[in-house]
Amino acid sequence: MPTMPAIAQDLAAATAAPRTMPTPTDCIVEVDHLRKTFGTEAALKGVSLRIGAGERVALLGASGSGKSTLMRCLCGLETAESGRVQVFGDTLQADGRLGPDIRRLRRSIGVVFQQFNLVGRLPVMTNVLAGLAAETPLWRCLSGRFTLAQRTRALEALDTIGLASQAFQRASTLSGGQQQRAAIARVLVQGARLLLADEPVASLDPESTRRVMEQLTQLNRDAGMTLIVSLHHVALARRYCDRVIALRHGELVYDGPSRALTSEFLRELYGSAADELEAEDAAIGSVLPRHSHPTSLAPMPSQEARIEPLMEPLMEPLIEPVIGAHLDPLHHDLPGVRLATRAA
Ligand SMILES: Nc1ncnc2c1ncn2[C@@H]1O[C@H](COP(=O)(O)OP(=O)(O)OP(=O)(O)O)[C@@H](O)[C@H]1O
Q: Which residue intervals define the domain ABC transporter in the entry (predicted)?
């Protein structure tokens, strides 16, 4: 029986139009020999990869293969014992230490988690404004006195993902899919250039899954955000991402076009969980469009016209203080967010 790497090599070689690896100049993520151990367990065993600007990459692998650990290392929420992560040409971490530019780099990295990381009792708008915490003076964050321009930006981001009319509702009143889209609006308002989405649809129904995946795809296409998304469903990876990186027991076992993935390889990758995943994939597949390109829609009123009726509450200077431990783990090291968390 062929080994896993052998199958992966065959797959990549058999692809009619192999994806060209990003050249050093358009590489925005470079990972070299990353190794991370928890106790005696190695979660990442010397992973190396390159991701180019504007790519849409799916991270696949069975439970425990190291996907979340890799994602957390890419944004500096986790430090690896050895190896290096460079983002936008600067060192994010090397040999267990975060680089000197970590705060600046984090501003350009948006992260979306499976659990949404919204504060349910705060309005959707406030949750989205938290994306601006890194660029806003502490006193403004603590008192909720965001500028009109910032509040308008947040409303526009919510409009872009179709949630403007829910802007002043408590986040807890939204459905799971809507909450995930609000988390995406927070990344949009942050102005991130790299979006890491760690199992963003794992707790969503098939229809919400489709919507969230399309929104992530649109951010990649329209806002030019590079997207790395970890997924359990191969059908989603095939539909929405051109490239797949697969991990198994902390090792990179495949890096190539998503269309080249075969059932044989996936059985190797997922082992005994393959049958269950195949059944779930069939359910998801039934609600996915045939093409990931958005279908043409009826003409919409301009964004200005759409959000104009919602502007009135924005004229009130106070929104809500940006508080809460779960708002945005990336910015927990900001003094404002720490203080606010303690005060909450
Ligand atoms: N904070 C931690 N403490 C101890 N072990 C951890 C920690 N985080 C991850 N691990 C271990 O590292 C390995 C990789 O975990 P990781 O969460 O990265 O996998 P995953 O592919 O994201 O899994 P899943 O798909 O189930 O989320 C697992 O064996 C896990 O138990």
A: 29-274
Dihedral-angle region of residue 341 (phi above 0 means left; psi in -120 to 50 means alpha; beta otherwise): alpha
Beta-bridge mates of residue 41: 38
- Lining ligand 1 with CB less than 6 A are 38, 41, 43, 61, 63-69
Residue nearest to atom 4 of ligand 1 (CA): 38
CB 102 within 8 A of CB 283: no
Split at pLDDT 50, 70, 90, the class of 322 is low
Residue 70 CA: which ligand 1 atom is closest? 18
Q: At what angle do helices 176-190 and 148-160 cross, to 10 degrees?
A: 130
End-to-end CA distance of the chain: 58
Helices (H), 15-75: 67-74
pLDDT digits (tens, 9 = 90+) for 104-133: 999 899 999 888 888 888 899 999 998 888
Q: How far is the CA of 316 from the centre of ligand 1 (A)?
A: 45
In angstroms, the CA 333 to CA 323 distance is 13
Look up the pTM and report it: 0.81
Report the nearest atom of ligand 1 relative to the CA of 72: 18
Characterise 200 by phi-psi region: left (phi > 0), alpha (psi -120 to 50), beta (else).
alpha
Strands 194-198 and 226-230: parallel
> Of all atoms in ligand 1, which is nearest to the CA of residue 65?
21
Span 178-187, average pLDDT: 93
Q: Please state whether 199 falls in left (phi above 0), alpha (psi between -120 and 50) or beta.
A: left
Q: What is the pLDDT of residue 78?
A: 94
Report the distance separating Cα 289 and Cα 281, nearest Å.
Answer: 14
Centroid of ligand 1 to alpha carbon of 42 (angstroms) = 10
As for the ipTM of the complex, it is 0.97
Ligand 1 centroid to residue 335 C-alpha, Å: 29
Ligand 1 pocket mutation, candidates 35, 41, 69, 111, criterion most atoms within 8 A of CB: 69
- Do you know the residue count of the chain? 344
Domains and CATH numbers, the chain: 1-108+193-291 (3.40.50.300), 119-189+296-344 (no CATH)
